[in-house]
């Protein structure tokens, strides 16, 4: 009799203001909504046999709690920390604490934008960083996590 294997889950984390995707500065962030991104991430993950739990919050502590919550249950994290990318040692420390593989995603090419967006506290604890690829970046992040043993 075969054993039913537990599903492999990834955590998708989106930070502040990303709930407004679709209407927020569409020239910078595009017209795709967060719901559409979450749906496409789930579909991409399913092609790899992965399931996705998605969280978005405008509150740093809620993002940290979600990251902590993944530590024994998920195989990796895809995160767009929004503006917390450039400010939050606490989110970086949370990602380091859970010791899961992390892929950092930005819809826009932060390096082509204002100087204050060029530094990321998260990149130093990420396996990979994808910036400027729009919503496709999230799907590629899933591919990267799925490719890990
Ligand atoms: C999203 C944000 O909200 C900004 O604060 C970052 C990032 C860039 C993005 O491109 O997805 O600077």
Describe, in plain words, how this protein is organized in 3D.
The chain is α/β, with parallel strands linked by helices and 149 residues long. It has a single domain (9-146), classed as Rossmann fold (3-Layer(aba) Sandwich), CATH 3.40.50.9100. The protein has 5 helices and 5 strands, in the order E-H-H-E-H-E-H-E-E-H. The protein has helices spanning 26-29, 34-47, 60-69, 89-98, 136-147, and strands at residues 8-14, 50-56, 76-80, 102-106, 128-131. It has a 5-stranded parallel sheet, with helices on both faces. 3-dehydroshikimate (DHK) binds at residues 17, 80, 82-83, 85, 106-108, 110, 117.
List keywords for this structure.
binds 3-dehydroshikimate, 5-stranded parallel β-sheet, globular, Rossmann fold, 149 residues, 34% helix, 5 helices, alpha/beta
Count all strands and give the number: 5
Number of helices: 5
Helix percent reads 25-40%
Gap between N and C termini, in Å?
26 Å
Give the CATH topology: Rossmann fold
Ligand inventory: 3-dehydroshikimate
Order of helices and strands: EHHEHEHEEH
Strand-pairing-aware structural class: alpha/beta
Strand content: 15-25%
Radius of gyration: 15 Å
Number of self-contained structural domains:
1
CATH class: Alpha Beta
For the record, what is the CATH homologous superfamily label? Answer: Dehydroquinase, class II
Kindly summarize this structure in a few lines.
This protein has 149 residues and is of the alpha/beta class.
